[in-house]
Fold Cytochrome B.
Amino acid sequence: MYSIILQAHHWIAFIALALLAYATINGAIGSNSEKVFDDSHRKINLFALITTHTMLLLGIVLLIISPVAQTAFADMGAAMKDGAVRKAVVEHPTMNIIAAVLVTIGNAKSKKAVGNGRKFKVSMIFFGLALLLILSRLPFEKLF
Ligand code: HEM
Ligand code: HEM
């Protein structure tokens, strides 16, 4: 079970990162142009949200069942002193929960914002910030 969830969290990571980057780039290009924020842009934002939420759900399950997390939670003092463990079970989850919240707010705001420019700009800021937070605590060495 653990290995299936870990594999899913590993491979869906690529899709989530790609969609977040796509949504951010769409937003950046759109905010300085006369482009119309159409259904394709709304859907990319929605797919970025769905994959990020899926990562959130898988990540919460990992925090409960991962042997790394279980050992860490058994002795939190020791876990906090070990950089690699602290990153995996504290920094990465905390940062990515914040990122998931930003993605959720960004998706909702991009739908509610008035005017194409505003919709693109909101997408760029919220999805871009979420992507930066995720990248700041991403275990690149495990991903590749
Ligand atoms: C721990 C797991 C999850 C949490 C805490 C969570 C939380 C949320 C929250 C707070 C919202 C915003 C609701 C609103 O607009 O008022 C939301 C919306 C949504 N979530 Fe999740 N979610 C989780 C997992 C998932 C998963 C696994 C999926 C899909 C595979 C998913 C798909 C969606 C979709 C499609 C929306 C609606 C977006 C929209 O309004 O356009 N979520 N979720
Ligand atoms: C889009 C956001 C996220 C991305 C791109 C991401 C990516 C990754 C990657 C690439 C790994 C390494 C997987 C491996 O060892 O093969 C990992 C591990 C982990 N992630 Fe995430 N993650 C995200 C969100 C989250 C969230 C929200 C949580 C918790 C709430 C979480 C909890 C964990 C944990 C606990 C591990 C370590 C599991 C272990 O080694 O046993 N992740 N994540």
